[in-house]
Specification:
By secondary structure, the protein is mostly helical. Helices cover 59% and strands 0% of the residues. The mean pLDDT is 81.
Length: 110
Amino acid sequence: MTETVGSTATPDRGNPEDEQGDGLSRRDRKRANKAAGGGKKQKDPNRKNVFARTALFYRQIIAELRKVVWPSRNDLTTYTTTVIVFVMVIMAIVYGLDTGFAELAKVVFG
């Protein structure tokens, strides 16, 4: 599958123009719809009300959170310690470079 720059295609969806499978571009489908008298948007009878959609959204969130593998306390302590040590090392490197460049600037510019 060859992708072009700026394409909205994804591997699981394919090209957006091919969604209906009729080979027509979005513009051509729009023209055909207008010519057939479908200029007005019609309400979808299968569309649920806002409360049902909101409830579905939250049910899906909870279902996804149940799939998450949460770290144990030991893992969490290890990860936290690693991050803190890494940040302190980077802070020391930046502090050393900053101090060195400041001293170099004093020597060069007096």
